[in-house]
Design a protein that fits this description.
Layout lengths: L10 E9 L2 E14 L2 E14 L7 E15 L4 E15 L2 E8 L9 E9 L4 E15 L4 E14 L2 E14 L7 E12 L2 E16 L2 E18 L4 E19 L4 E16 L7 E16 L2 E16 L2 E18 L2 E15 L9 E17 L2 E16 L9 E14 L6 E15 L13 E17 L2 E18 L4 E21 L3 E19 L5 E20 L5 E14 L6 E13 L1
Antiparallel strand pairs: 1-2, 1-30, 2-3, 3-4, 4-5, 5-8, 6-7, 8-9, 9-10, 10-11, 11-12, 12-13, 13-14, 14-15, 15-16, 16-17, 17-18, 18-19, 19-20, 20-21, 21-22, 22-23, 23-24, 24-25, 25-26, 26-27, 27-28, 28-29, 29-30
């Protein structure tokens, strides 16, 4: 779920979801208030996750987050700032339930009843952390601002706890909009006894015109420290992260209908640990990209080439990475009709000067996509989406050459959409999908050891909305899937089927619009999936046997609010009865997704 929230509004959000063995509750509140000389902003959220796995006791995970910022302005230049933050995280690890019983050898004595014994299968996790700071913000002139705050922080974890001072400071230099230079910095530190966490950020941005061209430079330095407990022993390892980022973009018009750009992206990150057996690491990325894009009338296009360096150092082992990308796209759009073609080619090479490193590899990926929309009639349009992906991976080291493979994906998805103005709606989709994975080195004689495989699927779906009377409509949806899987010999283009499946999904629902503000949908849905296994007899013939028969059916309900500024409700629930041949008894598969948002 993605929720957009306008600044300056207060809101309360609650969300609940339940599916299979997992339940999640979430409550979130946001506060934005302006009272005379006070400005208050707050955000709090609590999320609880519960899982019930067979053979385990219930597992719980709780997370609580609270942030509060208040500012009181004394005059135009000076303000009092108060901020606090808190976090509590608890994860109770799953524990086995072992049933044991005791039987007496004495006659005429009843057996002792079974009892349950819990065995640990992991460690519980708990983190409680918070900080409170207060200070001042000084507006030194119209373009320069400084803030400085101090307070205290505490941290409690399963392995240990601590408390100490906390502080934050920074500045911002932001001239008028026509000034090309801007600079800002911010940093905070929390002390937890002998442990400490901190972060410092310094950023600079400048914009410089050169005739018709414009150059934008963004430079950023980030330094972080995290003191982490290492395992359950209480030992602490210090993780230091130092990162430098640079981004530069030069944009210039090329002719009347075209724009050219040259982009540079640089990132250098050093990660070091001062204790334990964890070695230092380094990541370096440097990308050059040239691009041309333009449009002329109803036509548009783009072409780009980039060359990047991706060097990695982990535990003293250096891996040199090189990535080249070519992108081409173009199309046409007019009066609602459109055609788009795109091509993407990536070549990756990872090499290490260490002869013992086995991760060296080359990879080549081609991706071709087509999207088009054509109106066949004024209320009927054809939508076509096609995709081809060719992915080839080659491991340089002989010990990993058995994983050299080709991956080929072919997908075609045409759809017809009928949208008349009378309230009728109909969408018919067809999809053909084929996914082939082919390994270069296999024993073609021993067919049971073949890893090359194929998945093919054909699908057809249809959704029809029928207006019945004012504020009432009916929705009929159906889908049919036919798929097969099997081992593949690409050289002969022969597939030895191992599994076949066919599935049908259908639903029928009535929809009611209430007071033009809410939509209520009540319906019934069903699913039926049959899976067959194909084996080879000694004489070479194929033997088919049913591996699984899955049936699910039950009511469903959906509620959605519309045209209401303060209250938004979305609920989607289904209550299915499941008959599965892989299980001895009929089971339930209920799912509920509920979101309620209130703004004031």
């Amino acid at each position: 779920m993605i929720l957009g929230q306008a600044d300056g509004s207060d809101s309360l959000l609650t969300r609940y979801s339940q599916e299979l063995d997992t339940r999640v509750w979430r409550l979130q509140g946001q506060l934005n208030r302006q009272e005379q000389d006070w400005s208050v902003r707050g955000l709090g959220s609590s999320e609880i996750t519960n899982r019930n796995l067979p053979g385990f006791k219930p597992q719980w995970k709780n997370e609580f987050v609270l942030r509060l910022n208040a500012e009181h302005r004394f005059n135009r230049d000076l303000s009092l700032v108060i901020e606090s933050a808190g976090q509590e995280y608890q994860d109770r690890a799953a524990r086995f339930i072992v049933e044991r019983g005791s039987v007496s050898n004495l006659p005429n004595r009843e057996d002792v009843h079974q009892v349950s014994e819990s065995l640990r299968s992991g460690d519980d996790t708990r983190i409680t952390r918070g900080s409170v700071r207060s200070g001042v913000k000084w507006q030194a002139g119209p373009v320069f601002e400084v803030h400085l705050l101090g307070g205290g922080a505490f941290d409690q974890q399963t392995q240990g706890e601590g408390a100490g001072p906390s502080g934050r400071g920074g500045f911002s230099y932001a001239p008028e909009w026509d000034n090309p230079f801007k600079m800002e910095g911010d940093g905070w530190i929390d002390q937890y006894g002998e442990r400490r966490n901190h972060e410092a950020i310094l950023a600079m941005r400048t914009r410089q015109p050169f005739g018709d061209a414009t150059d934008i430079l963004d430079l950023r330095w980030i330094n972080r420290r995290n003191d982490l407990f290492l395992g359950t022993t209480g030992n602490v390892v210090r993780r230091l992260n130092d990162e430098l980022q640079l981004a530069n973009s030069l944009v210039s018009p090329v002719g009347n209908d075209m724009i050219g750009s040259y982009d540079i992206r640089f990132r250098n990150t050093n990660v070091d640990y001062d204790q334990g057996d964890i070695g230092a690491g380094r990541e370096l990325d440097f990308v050059n990209r040239f691009a041309l894009q333009g449009e002329h009338g109803d036509y548009f296009g783009m072409a780009s080439y980039s060359y990047g360096v991706e060097d990695r150092t982990y535990g003293g082992s250096l891996i040199l990475g090189r990535r080249q990308i070519i992108q081409l796209s173009g199309g046409w759009s007019s009066d609602g009709d459109s055609v788009l073609f795109s091509y993407n080619a990536q070549k990756l090479a990872f090499n290490s000067p260490d002869s013992l490193e086995t991760s060296d590899r080359d990879r080549l990926i081609h991706s071709i996509r087509h999207q088009s929309i054509f109106y066949l009639l004024s209320d009927t349009r054809l939508v076509v989406d096609a995709l081809v992906v060719l992915d080839h991976l080659v491991n340089i080291s002989s010990v990993r050459s058995a994983d050299n493979r080709w991956n080929r994906v072919f997908r075609l998805n045409p759809a017809i959409q009928w949208i008349p103005g009378s309230g009728w709606r109909n969408t018919t989709d067809f999809e053909v999908l084929a996914n082939y994975n082919v390994y270069d080195f296999e024993d073609a004689v021993a067919s049971t050891s073949l890893r090359s495989n194929a998945l093919r699927r054909w699908s057809a779906s249809d959704t029809l909305i029928i207006p019945l009377m004012p504020n009432w409509s009916a929705e009929i949806a159906s889908r049919y899937d036919l798929e097969d899987r099997g081992r593949l010999r690409w050289d002969e283009f022969v597939q030895e089927l191992s599994d076949e499946a066919q599935a049908y999904y259908g639903s029928l629902a009535l929809q009611r619009t209430i007071w033009t503000r809410a939509t209520l949908t009540l319906g019934y849905r069903l699913q039926h999936r049959i899976e067959d296994r194909l084996d080879r007899n000694a004489d070479g013939s194929t033997r088919r046997s049913q591996a699984r028969d899955y049936r699910a059916h039950g009511p469903m309900v959906r509620v959605t609010t519309t045209r209401n500024r303060n209250l938004q409700l979305n609920m989607n629930a289904s209550f299915l009865t499941v008959d599965d041949s892989a299980q001895d008894e009929t089971t339930r598969h209920d799912s509920i997704f509920l979101t309620l948002l209130y703004n004031w």
